[in-house]
């Protein structure tokens, strides 16, 4: 294998591993701008991965599986939103509980039945896919990946240009002041979590019925946490957040590719690489952070 | 337009009652406001003014009572409903969102598409009509207090409210900015026939600006009158519920300038070693020189005031003296010893106590108990090597609470539950406990009621009498005249001059504030 070929392979695999992160990161980014620190993005991804495989197996359609995944993410977002931004239970605790619950539940459910594998199709863009080096990685992906071209600008526009997004940002910066201007703070946060749930669900489902074609126990393996790290890495800017996803995706691809290239490194160390990289990135870029001032702070009417 | 009592009032409140737990914030308050008048709402902190206005804005739901707008009963369940009824408010603690730009803040609370051009045009129109200059694209966190206030007013007026409520609007404004604001309000009521409710505890303001006045005390209406028929002294008495006679109290209320006959150098004798000496103190931040070569000394028993318009480096100096930011250059000496300000707590160990400008932010820990807050700086006294000695802590806290007359349901109550005046006493008690030789008091009476201001003045004087050097950072002319023995003036981060109080006049200080030698 030539150097060019192996580089293309690693890039292609890196992009493939980035796509699920990127979907979920768009959601998490929007939720955090609204001040909703959404730890349960892992639960959203993992549960969606499971239901997408189960639904695809039952219906015979990977696309329906994908839709089921989005729906599952929405449900998790709905549950999280109502518990933490209606019932006012600590959002971090809920996130951790949901993550543990979904991990346990899917680990159990996977043992109860055999699922037949289904995978969404690859869509190669003619001509563009023949560009050397980046052609295959960027223009020969499974079709839902191209949804990013739509969803990334849409997320940006929603946050930066729509009234809804302006209100979200206000809620994330200063919920008391937002309340005074008549914005329903907790409603906006629950809505933000629904958006996050749908996109994280899409990311999880893409991982399962897109890339892998089946469900394994704990198949997201902390990708939800990587998504949160990417938002921090991106200093709550969408472009940099997606760059963070790409960095994490590529480092994951390196891990998979290195043994094939004849480099022998401790496998456990390689698994840890993206996380170490995330830590390092946060350490290096920490001074540039401008996080939403009310991130993770609950809001209750009438209290100061 | 003159207010007529026969017409249907634009706003009428009947028997408004609101309780928080066992505390009755408002107990059957009646209020009547006519179009075309500025109605003063006067009361000490905790008198129920803010609760009443929150009810009016739909931010909290009343327990009982009726609200009539133009004679019609309204529910007022949400801020949206209040806005639709034409009730708008300029808040005391700004309701602006720091991370957003001016125009984005103005756009909040609108409906429909976000149209930057339209909003900026509105802002320009309102700005021009009232002479309130604002920069639509500026991020709010970069604006000064006065500029933020202007944004608030523009934001509120753009909604075209028929009833405009202002909560302590001048507490962070300079004299000139206040006058500008009242000029705008005058136009709002006289030319446009709106109604204004002005909440304040500054009697001078109420006396000058309002047509009628309602005084609240302990959640009830204590007094109401046509402003012209009353006197500030009478209003003060109604507000406090007792005679207000002390000169400095009157000065605090802005009634009279302080007694200038007070003898000079009431503090320490000449030639004594200063307890605080700042030499060449300079702070650069983000390419901006916030403090430039500040030299200042405070002798034992002396009260030195640092007077100036807000935003001229006082906050930075306060942060430096609190040890929050290290100076770029210059030295700080406490009782003759140079202090290494890069070490946390070094200034405090050296004997410097500070009542910070923003007590919620850096003065107290709101959710910790009164006892914990009081003993925070003297943990050696109340703990062993590892464990707190709760009994000792409570005893020490009890002693301080008694000495400083802190009113609290219990020493275990969170500081959050105390009134502003009592919170400030907690800070002062803690900072004066131990071996404090110099006390820095930054805007110590901001947002306090008359009684608490009087108390604060007495305590600062008492501290000076005991030989503590006091550095009073203040923007209130009457306050520095009432308290200080020497007045230094800061302008654009630079000390422009210092005068003994006997030579200080409004004109001379005004020149210095403007950056010119007097």
TrEMBL record, chain A:
Transmembrane helix listed as a keyword: yes
Subcellular localization: Cell membrane
Membrane topology category: Multi-pass membrane protein
Signal peptide interval: none
Entries under InterPro entries matching the protein: ABC_transp_permease
Predominant location: membrane
GO CC field: plasma membrane
Residues that span the membrane, as ranges: 48-79, 91-110, 143-159, 192-209, 224-248, 260-285
GO MF annotations, alphabetized: transmembrane transporter activity
Keywords per UniProt: Cell membrane, Membrane, Transmembrane, Transmembrane helix
Protein name: ABC transporter permease
Organism: Streptomyces aurantiogriseus
UniProtKB/TrEMBL annotation, chain B:
One term of GO molecular function: ATP hydrolysis activity
UniProt keyword annotations, A-Z: ATP-binding, Nucleotide-binding
Transmembrane segments: none
One Pfam match: ABC_tran
Keyword Nucleus (UniProt): no
ABC transporter domain ranges (all copies): 11-243, 276-517
Entry annotated with the keyword ATP-binding: yes
Stated name of the protein: Sugar ABC transporter ATP-binding protein
Organism listed in the record: Streptomyces aurantiogriseus
């Amino acid at each position: 294998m030539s150097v060019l070929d192996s580089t293309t392979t690693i890039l292609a695999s890196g992009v493939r591993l980035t796509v699920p992160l990127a979907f979920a990161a768009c959601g998490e980014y929007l939720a955090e701008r609204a001040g909703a620190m959404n730890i349960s993005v892992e639960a959203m991804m993992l549960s969606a991965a499971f239901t997408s495989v189960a639904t695809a197996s039952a219906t015979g359609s990977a696309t329906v599986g994908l839709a089921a995944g989005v729906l599952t993410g929405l449900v998790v977002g709905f549950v999280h939103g109502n518990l933490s931004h209606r019932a006012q239970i600590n959002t971090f605790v809920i996130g951790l509980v949901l993550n543990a619950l979904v991990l346990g539940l899917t680990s159990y459910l996977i043992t109860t039945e055999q699922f037949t594998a289904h995978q969404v199709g690859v869509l190669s863009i003619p001509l563009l896919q023949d560009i050397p080096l980046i052609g295959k990685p960027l223009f020969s992906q499974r079709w839902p990946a191209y949804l990013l071209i739509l969803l990334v600008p849409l997320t940006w526009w929603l946050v930066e240009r729509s009234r809804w997004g302006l209100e979200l940002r206000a809620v994330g910066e200063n919920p008391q002041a937002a309340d005074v201007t008549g914005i329903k703070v907790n409603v906006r946060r629950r809505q933000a979590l629904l958006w996050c749930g749908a996109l994280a669900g899409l990311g999880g489902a893409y991982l399962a019925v897109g890339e892998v074609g089946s469900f394994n126990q704990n198949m997201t393996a902390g990708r939800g946490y990587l998504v949160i790290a990417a938002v921090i890495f991106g200093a709550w800017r969408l472009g940099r957040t997606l760059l963070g996803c790409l960095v994490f995706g590529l480092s994951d691809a390196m891990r998979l590719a290195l043994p094939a290239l004849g480099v022998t490194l401790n496998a456990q160390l390689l698994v840890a690489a993206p996380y170490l990289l995330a830590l390092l990135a946060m350490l290096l870029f920490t001074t540039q952070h401008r996080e939403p001032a009310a991130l993770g702070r609950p809001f209750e009417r009438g209290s100061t | 337009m003159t207010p007529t009592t026969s017409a249907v009032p634009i706003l009428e409140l009947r028997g408004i009652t609101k309780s928080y737990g066992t505390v009755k914030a408002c107990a059957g308050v009646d209020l009547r406001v006519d179009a075309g008048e500025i109605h003063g709402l006067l009361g000490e902190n905790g008198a129920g003014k803010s609760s009443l206005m929150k009810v009016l804005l739909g931010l909290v739901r009343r327990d009982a009572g009726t609200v009539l707008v133009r004679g019609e009963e309204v529910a007022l369940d949400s801020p949206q409903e209040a806005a639709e009824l034409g009730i708008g408010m300029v808040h005391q603690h700004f309701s602006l969102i720091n991370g957003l730009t001016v125009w984005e803040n103005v756009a909040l609370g609108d409906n429909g598409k976000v149209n930057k051009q339209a909003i900026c045009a509105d802002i320009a129109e309102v700005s021009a009509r009232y002479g309130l200059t604002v920069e639509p694209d500026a991020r709010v966190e970069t604006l000064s207090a006065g500029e933020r206030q202007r944004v608030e007013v523009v934001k509120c007026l753009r909604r075209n409210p028929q009833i405009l409520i202002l909560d302590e609007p001048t507490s962070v404004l300079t004299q000139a900015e206040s006058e500008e604001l009242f000029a705008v309000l005058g136009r709002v009521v006289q030319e446009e026939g709106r109604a204004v409710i002005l909440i304040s505890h500054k009697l001078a303001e109420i006396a000058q600006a309002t047509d009628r006045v309602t005084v609240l005390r302990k959640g009830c209406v204590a007094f109401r009158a046509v402003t012209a028929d009353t006197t500030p002294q009478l209003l003060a008495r109604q507000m406090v519920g007792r005679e207000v006679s002390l000169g400095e109290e009157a000065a605090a209320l802005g009634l009279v300038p302080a007694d200038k006959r007070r003898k000079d150098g009431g503090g320490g004798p000449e030639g004594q070693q200063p307890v605080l000496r700042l030499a060449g103190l300079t702070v650069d931040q983000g390419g901006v020189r916030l403090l430039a070569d500040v030299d200042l000394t405070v002798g034992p028993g002396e009260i030195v005031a640092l007077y100036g318009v807000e935003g001229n480096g006082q906050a930075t100096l306060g942060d430096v003296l609190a040890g929050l930011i290290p100076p770029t250059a210059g030295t700080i000496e406490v009782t003759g010893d140079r202090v290494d300000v890069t070490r946390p707590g070094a200034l405090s160990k050296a004997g410097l106590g500070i009542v910070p400008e923003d007590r919620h932010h850096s003065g107290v820990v709101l959710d910790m108990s009164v006892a914990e807050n009081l003993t925070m700086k003297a943990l050696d006294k109340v703990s062993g090597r590892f464990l707190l000695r709760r009994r000792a802590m409570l005893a020490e806290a009890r002693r301080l609470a008694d000495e400083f007359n802190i009113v609290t349901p219990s020493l275990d109550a969170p500081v959050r539950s105390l009134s502003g005046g009592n919170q400030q006493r907690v800070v002062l008690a803690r900072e004066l406990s131990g071996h404090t030789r110099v006390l820095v008091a930054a805007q110590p009476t901001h947002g306090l009621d008359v009684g608490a201001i009087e108390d604060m003045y007495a305590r600062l004087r008492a501290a000076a009498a005991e030989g503590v050097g006091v550095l009073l950072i203040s923007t209130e002319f009457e306050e520095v005249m009432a308290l200080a023995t020497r007045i230094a003036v800061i302008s654009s981060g630079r000390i422009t001059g210092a005068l003994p109080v006997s030579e200080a006049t409004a004109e001379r200080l005004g020149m210095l504030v403007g950056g010119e030698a007097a």
